[in-house]
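Notes to self, Translin:
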Amino acid sequence: MTDLNFFQDIQATLEHETDVRENIRTAVRELDRTCRTVAAILNKVHTVTTPTVIAEVSTTARGRFPDIHNDLKKLAALIPAEQYYRYNGMWTFVLQQACYLAAYTTYLHYERLVTVPEVEEMLGVPVSLRGDLPTFHIGIEDLLHGIVSLTGELTRLTVNCVTHGDFQRPFRIHQFIVDLHSGFQLLNLKNDTLRKRFDSIKYDIKKTEEVVYDISVRKLATKPEAGGGQPTA
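result:
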């Protein structure tokens, strides 16, 4: 006679797995909703690009990061011990989005690249530079994806700065993207998706280069001296 307990145990395991995944999906949706709220706040810089407005927007956005922190904490609590890599594909995209928001907010506030400790503080999640953490963490590739996303948004900001009469900021953004591209060139990227996205940075350089060239030939502004950046805070 077949031992039905064997199949009953398997069914219980499958039901538990379904519950875990559904709870994770719910938590990821909440995190995504919060990230979209912060993104909407940051999007206001494209409407008016004055230093005062950009400083106000970045400060407001920074004030919402505790919400992202809490959502990530709730998500992390749902992951069974030692099973991070079993489920991490469920939140990869939204975690990259959170990293991008941290990078973008930091740039608007200080006009520089976010640091690993700042990402960890803003999101409340450790960054694993070696990918060897069994607990909930931000993988280095997720962080890099977030940083790559930053260049496209800054390119858009460059165009809008000109529209609103801010002719100096495009020079600083262009130099930042050039420096960022140089940094990425030092990496031996194995991830095909990340490498393809990195290749897109050169197109952002070209776009911002065209903007600063037009500003220069029209004599609307001159290229600032090295180290002449003006952070908004």
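- The chain has ten helices and two strands.
- The longest helix spans residues 4-42.
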